[in-house]
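Need the bound structure for adenosine-5'-triphosphate, inputs here:
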Amino acid sequence: MNNKEMKQLIKNARKYSRPFRVTDDHFRLKDIDPGDTLDLTSEDKPRAKEALANGIQVLAELQDMLYAQDNWSVLLIFQAMDAAGKDGAIKHVMSGVNPQGCQVYSFKVPTSEDLDHDYMWRCMKRLPERGRIGIFNRSYYEETLVVRVHRAFLEKQKLPPDLVTKDIWKERFQDIRSIERYLLRNGVLIRKFFLHVSNKEQKKRFLERIEEPEKNWKFSANDAKEREYWDDYMDAYEDMIRNTATKGAPWYVVPADNKWFTRVIVAAAVIDALDSLDLKYPKVSDAKLKELAAAKRDL
Ligand code: ATP
Ligand code: MG
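Answer from helper R.:
Posting the output first, comments after.
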């Protein structure tokens, strides 16, 4: 890919991802349609797939510079209801990047060791190293989602009772904003993705998991039971996004009823993020150039 093509792709990436970027508290979930595909129809699907393939190539080139420069790290956080396509989006979007420069971690129900610490502890241990792209498949944001919807999780956290007041969610949002600002000031660029699937599409995907034998392993009866709390989750997501979307660490609320579209938008947002870092290969010093010339003579 030549420079001109790369520039054009980066421009397109910005155009497609910006409509879904949230940077302040004006966000309303009902303004995002999970079935949205912008100006792309299902006839454009092959073209979208090609765009994704090209996007992945651009991403690989940017990642190579990120790694060589070794100053910034990039943290991508994925949150979603079950079956929204987190795993698939991560798999496809990162398919072209060098595995050595990529670190993925999935956060599950906290272990007893986790519960013996503050909730950030387990996440801070998994932050990407400089030059790397880190992916959190779920994250500390669960602390304002599942833990808010199911108070029993909060009770297991062994917090001093006086610290658990009605302001706890507001305080968690404040702390998360502060930590993300701290990380940015230390060279960790954060982008957050909420893959927004509709209730109806989730049901369809659960039924597929039941009906198709090779998808059976993905089905959990508990996931289906969580559907009872759908509205509580949506309220929690909306409040979380409003309170933690910032210019420095924006949320992307990505329509997730069409997997091909979700993947294009996530790839586009990651390209836009990497491009914002103005990455360059490290400049070689005169001494190093002399060394290279000498080595060439000797070979
Ligand atoms: P998949 O089901 O696609 O493999 P997943 O991310 O749903 O991926 P699971 O092992 O099914 O993985 O689920 C992880 C579970 O852990 C989720 O239900 C999530 O809500 C829960 N979880 C994550 N973080 C916390 C937390 N801090 N407190 C309580 N529960 C949490
Ligand atoms: Mg699950």
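Comments: The mean pLDDT is 96. Residues 82, 87, 106-110, 137-138, 142-143, 146-147, 153 surround adenosine-5'-triphosphate (ligand 1) (CB under 6 Å).
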